[in-house]
Amino acid sequence: MMMSMQRKTFLRLVLGIKERKIWALMESTKMNGSVLDNKAAAGGGVEDVYGEDFATEDQLITPWTVSVASGYTLLRDPKHNKGLAFNEQERDSHYLRGLLPPSFLSQELQEKRLMHNLRQYKVPLQRYVAMMDLQERNERLFYKLLIDNVEELLPVVYTPTVGEACQKYGSIFRRPQGLYISLKEKGRISEVLKNWPERNIQVIVVTDGERILGLGDLGCQGMGIPVGKLSLYTALGGLRPSACLPITIDVGTNNEQLLNDEFYIGLKQKRATGQEYAELLEEFMSAVKQNYGEKVLIQFEDFANHNAFELLTKYSSSHLVFNDDIQGTASVVLSGIIAALKLVGGSLADQTFLFLGAGEAGTGIAELIALEMSKQTESPIEETRKKVWLVDSKGLIVSSRKESLQHFKKPWAHEHEPVKGLLDAVKAIKPTMLIGTSGTGKTFTKEVVEAMSSFNEKPVIFALSNPTSQSECTAEEAYTWSEGRAIFASGSPFDPVEYDGKVFTPGQGNNAYIFPGLGLGLIMSGAIRVREEMLLAASEALAAQVTQENFDNGLIYPPFANIRKISAHIAAKVAAKAYELGLASRLPQPEDLVSYAESCMYSPVYRCYR
């Protein structure tokens, strides 16, 4: 009541001197307002402290920034700008008369117009830039567009187009979309985090740019990856945009082309390594927990192998951390394998797996397969690992090479005579499933696919490397060389293929199936750690969403058109596992976790302003 009286008095004062802006102490409002008592939002958003998503779509909200936004300021604020969708009353009350053409366009009509404009662009990067421009001027319309047209726009805002965007990020950079933390900020990272305008961060995606997709070291220009991932967290998983923070850690680059580029936006020095690198990351991890608390999810993205494994091992016991390249890829591929078993027959333990690539993705997938097999058969994981073989740049990983192997490859060194090439490995091991995570294109040759087809009625072939140019083979090659018998999935999208009068729709083992729902499940349960059991639960939940109709069409992943429903089911299973393991802090546990997940999802529909 006192807060209400103070505000009325203040309003009278401001109006009395004919000021248009109503200044307020936002921290005071947040602490005294009732929205803090609401942990889930009917309109979307876990712990929606500002209340704009707690309001239902037909309720009026106030467009707060530092003040009540009005006039030209309101039109320049991407969180509240609605363009031509401001109604007559809003145009009067927020001083928009004359600043907009007289026409009114609903959000649906704006969406239709934008899709028409986007389809005029023939170059994917032009579409990417247009989408980023939209995000910077009208946040809700951006997410509405992406949610309603996810299958068409996912390749634009993420792989494969995001790879080219990162390569040219210095040229297309317009305004900061995340935080850049470089060696220059060492010793004051906590202060730098406070420069970000949002305080209630729930998920951070961070990269150091050393291994961007299959494109190598792009340094500071890797920012496109965290930005793209977090836009998917919101569009596909329903996390509020204001709760997401993209971060690039700039420790230099070993890319000579970038170092000699006058337009390069990062530090022009060789990469820091060793103690200097470790100290910067330690300071960063401590500062994140200090600023945002124990339950902020930190997703490591596109770190080089040696750092990726070390960081995940080091911080998984003290922070809520997740590596999408290791764990996210593993979860989505395991889901595809579980679904594929319904087409090939047999159990997981009946299969033999051969990987081309023994880095983060390859070993991460292999470990999750072995864990699931161990769970199903109640056998020791040391035994189930023997069903999984890996090929790296030196050939088949066997026990005679064990002394020279990196630590994360050693569990996969089995007894076998040395084998040099992939084709020889396929002939020797006779796998039922061939999985590519090498980052090198055209490595699943015609001879390799034909060999797989010679001893498998339905060879399972996953060409997972991104972007499309780095895929181990194309969908057309897999179906043609296997005479239409292959069960194929890729990391980047491929168009349907017609072979022998039949149309094959290739699956896409895209991590976007997993990480948005996983993140939502962790956040809505208040989980404090990520465990492998949660990844297995996510894989099983995704596989369960593949319908018989999908199987009849040869699909082992459900259509992306249903991704929000899929994410809600994944979130529910992950949250249930967090509660089961005693790692959830949001109590009591909701009775219907799927409904609760759906209620927590951010809605991009325009709101009406007072």
From TrEMBL:
Bound cofactor: record note: Divalent metal cations. Prefers magnesium or manganese.
SUPFAM superfamilies xrefs: Aminoacid dehydrogenase-like, N-terminal domain, NAD(P)-binding Rossmann-fold domains
Domain of life, per lineage: Eukaryota
Single GO MF annotation: malate dehydrogenase (decarboxylating) (NADP+) activity
Coiled coil: none
Record GO cellular component, one term: chloroplast
Malic enzyme NAD-binding domain mapped to chain residues: 326-579
Domain Malic enzyme N-terminal: 135-316
Family the UniProt entry places it in: Belongs to the malic enzymes family.
Key words, A-Z: Metal-binding, NADP, Oxidoreductase
GO biological process, one term: malate metabolic process
Catalytic reaction annotation: (S)-malate + NADP(+) = pyruvate + CO2 + NADPH; oxaloacetate + H(+) = pyruvate + CO2
Binding locations of a divalent metal cation: E301, D302, D325
Protein name per UniProt: Malic enzyme
Residues at the active site: Y158, K229
Source organism phylogeny: Eukaryota, Viridiplantae, Streptophyta, Embryophyta, Tracheophyta
Cofactor(s) recorded in Swiss-Prot or TrEMBL: Mg(2+); Mn(2+)
Binding annotation for (S)-malate: R211, N466, N510
Organism: Acer negundo (Box elder)
